[in-house]
């Protein structure tokens, strides 16, 4: 009896959740339509709804708070400029994620051209206890991985950031980057080899 | 532990990090409203002005039509009066 009641509650709950999601999507499409017509209040609502998600993506691209905020702004300005090209075939959040990836990658390429590299010492890498990386504070882990990947070329850095930090699979990475799936696979392999070489150097230095 | 495994585990750990909170809505709207080559977004403060301008235009058009009609009537009566005086 209890099992039946739980089942009925679960079904009812999922129906309510689906209904809520539908309402949110309808409201979002309406805001997109109104934003295209130049309604600033509608676009403000879209920004408020998605800025946390965009901020999370761009925190992988820059850990400098000022730069990070500027990048988030750039994403929403670019999104507004190309809002007419949004066809609502995929969720708006996915469309924004692609723009955020493009903006972040462009920033990396600019900093690489200026030859600005974030400081990183291989000793830092070796100081992490071997047996317990899962006990490391997430911020410390993120900072370390960020600075380690900053030693790679922007292309390698992008694919590893998406695959390992964002947890995207091959198809999602292809969508975010605009590359083909086979290109993502090849690029991941190459980037991993370069990373392996880099962390290998850390081991050698440590042994010396 | 393999160094690449360590990288993977650290990356997984890093996923739990919360990014700093940002609120860019005001800045973005300001850029879109006032930035170079303003891109066609309406300012919220412009909305009442737009309505005022629309009503003024409607009122002005109606006044112009009424003015033409009344001028026509007045000219007709004046011409009638002049022709009566001449006769």
CATH architecture of the largest domain in chain A: Orthogonal Bundle
How many individual β-strands of chain B?
Answer: 0
Q: Based on the structure, what is the oligomeric state of the protein chains? A: heterodimer
> How many separate domains of chain A?
2
What structural class do helix, strand and pairing data of chain B support?
mainly alpha
Let me know the number of strands of chain A. 0
Helix content of chain A: over 70%
Span from first to last CA of chain A?
68 Å
CATH fold naming of the largest domain in chain A: Rna Polymerase Sigma Factor, Chain: A
Terminal Cα span of chain B? 121 Å
Reading the helices and strands of chain A in chain order gives HHHHHHHHH
**What helical percentage do the residues of chain B reach?**
over 70%
What is the SS-derived class of chain A?
mainly alpha
Q: Count the helices of chain B. How many?
A: 3
Give the uncertain stretches of chain A in residue-range form.
Answer: none
**Helical segment count of chain A:** 9
């Amino acid at each position: 009896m209890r099992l039946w009641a739980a089942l009925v509650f679960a079904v009812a709950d999922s129906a309510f959740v689906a209904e809520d999601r539908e309402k949110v999507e309808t409201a979002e499409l309406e805001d997109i339509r109104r934003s295209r017509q130049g309604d600033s209040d509608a676009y403000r609502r879209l920004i408020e709804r998605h800025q946390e998600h965009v901020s999370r993506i761009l925190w992988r691209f820059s850990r400098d708070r000022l730069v990070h905020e500027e990048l988030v702004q750039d994403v929403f300005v670019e999104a507004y400029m190309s809002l007419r090209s949004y066809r609502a075939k995929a969720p708006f959040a996915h469309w924004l994620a692609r723009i955020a990836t493009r903006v972040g990658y462009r920033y990396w390429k600019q900093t690489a051209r200026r030859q600005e590299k974030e400081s990183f010492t291989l000793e830092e890498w070796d100081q992490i206890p071997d047996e317990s990386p899962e006990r490391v504070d997430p911020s410390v882990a993120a900072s370390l991985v960020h600075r380690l990947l900053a030693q790679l070329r922007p292309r390698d850095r992008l694919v590893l950031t998406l695959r390992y930090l964002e947890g995207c699979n091959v198809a999602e990475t292809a969508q975010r980057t605009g590359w083909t799936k086979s290109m993502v696979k090849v690029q991941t392999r190459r980037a991993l080899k370069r990373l392996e070489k880099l962390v290998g150097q850390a081991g050698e230095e440590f042994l010396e | 532990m393999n160094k690449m495994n360590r990288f993977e585990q650290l990356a997984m750990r890093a996923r739990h990090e919360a990014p700093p909170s940002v609120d860019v809505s005001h800045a973005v709207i300001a850029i879109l409203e006032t930035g170079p080559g303003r891109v066609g977004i309406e300012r919220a403060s412009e909305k009442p002005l737009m309505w005022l301008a629309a009503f003024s235009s409607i009122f002005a058009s109606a006044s112009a039509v009424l003015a033409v009609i009344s001028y026509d009537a007045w000219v007709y009566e004046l011409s009638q009066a002049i022709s009566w005086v001449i006769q």
